[in-house]
Amino acid sequence: xxxxxxxxxxxxxxxxxxxxxxxxxxxxxxxxxxxxxxxxxxxxxxxxxxxxxxxxxxxxxxxxxxxxxxxxxxxxxxxxxxxxxxxxxxxxxxxxxxxxxxxxxxxxxxxxxxxxxxxxxxxxxxxxxxxxxxxxxxxxxxxxxxxxxxxxxxxxxxxxxxxxxxxxxxxxxxxxxxxxxxxxxxxxxxxxxxxxxxxxxxxxxxxxxxxxxxxxxxxxxxxxxxxxxxxxxxxxxxxxxxxxxxxxxxxxxxxxxxxxxxxxxxxxxxxxxxxxxxxxxxxxxxxxxxxxxxxxxxxxxxxxxxxxxxxxxxxxxxxxxxxxxxxxxxxxxxxxxxxxxxxxxxxxxxxxxxxxxxxxxxxxxxx
Amino acid sequence: xxxxxxxxxxxxxxxxxxxxxxxxxxxxxxxxxxxxxxxxxxxxxxxxxxxxxxxxxxxxxxxxxxxxxxxxxxxxxxxxxxxxxxxxxxxxxxxxxxxxxxxxxxxxxxxxxxxxxxxxxxxxxxxxxxxxxxxxxxxxxxxxxxxxxxxxxxxxxxxxxxxxxxxxxxxxxxxxxxxxxxxxxxxxxxxxxxxxxxxxxxxxxxxxxxxxxxxxxxxxxxxxxxxxxxxxxxxxxxxxxxxxxxxxxxxxxxxxxxxxxxxxxxxxxxxxxxxxxxxxxxxxxxxxxxxxxxxxxxxxxxxxxxxxxxxxxxxxxxxxxxxxxxxxxxxxxxxxxxxxxxxxxxxxxxxxxxxxxxxxxxxxxxx
Lengths: 367, 367
Description:
Two copies of one chain form a homodimer. Chain A is built from 13 helices and eleven strands. The first copy, chain A, is an alpha/beta fold. Chain A has helices at 19-33, 43-51, 76-81, 86-95, 108-119, 154-170, 193-203, 230-255, 259-267, 269-278, 305-320, 323-332, 341-349; strands spanning 7-11, 36-41, 60-64, 101-104, 129-134, 141-144, 178-182, 208-213, 225-227, 286-290, 295-299. Chain A folds into two domains: 1-125 and 291-321, Isopropylmalate Dehydrogenase (3-Layer(aba) Sandwich); 129-282, Isopropylmalate Dehydrogenase. The first copy, chain A, has an eleven-stranded mixed beta sheet with strand order 3-2-1-4-11-10-5-6-9-7-8, with helices on both faces.
């Protein structure tokens, strides 16, 4: 119970199952860590759910929010008008100092947009990055960005790497996380303009940068962090999920085709279940949204109790280890990543710096 | 034997296994289709291999080539100097009219660069596209580009779609192939600048364009063709291969862990074998390199006899159905895709066309 005093806001209205899964999942995490919880959503629904669980010994409160953000909502305009969604109220709890982090199983789009708008970015971070933790045979892989942004600049990839490095150290307890760039070849110089520039920049950081990695290395390597544009990461993530499901379906189909294989499958069931467990996305629960002034974890819409519980526990760990402060410190060591560095360099040297151009472009999130 | 008169050049020196797999694989295709074969490579080695097979009834010749292209070779300079590699000799057989197509299991980089240099592009195609045929539960998916280019322009994606459409019609015998853009969301407007522009352009073509598809739809949808930048396609392809291997390894590990599961696996073996067969990349053998003046199929380095045989048969089908002529006809219907269209439009209208900018950029292949 070392986390007394730490409070997590839980957007309890999102996800495929709503409060009936989110509430017990988060309560389990509170019991295991001692963290305080602020369940945000429709007061009556949440109280009804809470009554089903004994939690008098826990620091639990309900904070009312009338509305729930819909899937498509991410434009600032609409969000500014709609003030009472659960994700908005939860974000303001952090802003007002009543919570240090939030966990949401709501739609990713409005969650990204709202938290970004309310909490703001860490100084030196141009764009937040959505990370995901992929289960693998040996150890998990942190893939970032999986869709918070598209058309990222090379330095954004470096910022993703810095943030993921802190996450891997503080939450996954990797002492020196290996960072790779997701690319189409291993040699330096391979790939598109974005990653070839990011390669040179990453090489000059203090990170344990090991170079490029290919698609086949995502599930079979000892690299801890794979950085990429959100367009690439999102496709890679969803492709993996889809292929996993296709495999499972095929296995079931073929094994139930006749008596002999059915019997075989029955005998091998513990083995097949172990495979399911090894591929269990629930184990890591939430996708951390890195780069905001506050801890934000987004859960998959279909997240079950275990996933919610794990996400809350990771968010607590991220908060109590002061991961965001560590990110700020690393950024201070790398002024060259600052958005205005080129401009300053231009002023001071009186000449144009050749590398990473194209400073313009929208800073809005997509995904 | 309706393909008499059609001749395929076979780069017989490439791949992990060389002539001992490529020669019998190609001979099998010749026996099934009646196509003529020109095996290109070291004369003595190839004759030795051919002696092991009875092929007196087939139109088979050996064409000597001293050298074999190495993995890294793709710069035009080095290739111009090195004239005698098997892929160069094979390409020249097409150029000289002594063959209509070629199949290579050699390294992809030099194969792309050499065939592009020797054969040239189809008029109206800016960049060739490397397609791959992914086996799926219902029907195969054509994914293009998987790495012939990176940093493609929106119109290049449309050109990939036109070429893949012809391939799907002529070789896979799909009467109206469904074309999708690999993207991070389904609604129009989702994704990066490249795909949002390509969306609008594809909508105006005569293709059966069905919109965006997400990563999870790659292995579970009825879309026939997924177009994407070579950077994205290459990562998606290699990720799928890697994940497939990881699954297989895990299945083997878990099933052999104790006697009960071993026995179960033995009883379910036919089912497990069927799964292997359904995921068999050998079935489609080769990756067509689309957009060149001639038929070019590239095989995986680890391609076995079946894959080589299938690749030759597909190359024959592509040639005899005059797929490249069909591509030329479709391109004539879409002058807006031409590289100089914008320029002409600018001259004729006296104003700058707003869409698809950034005409510059290297035309060299990477991958």
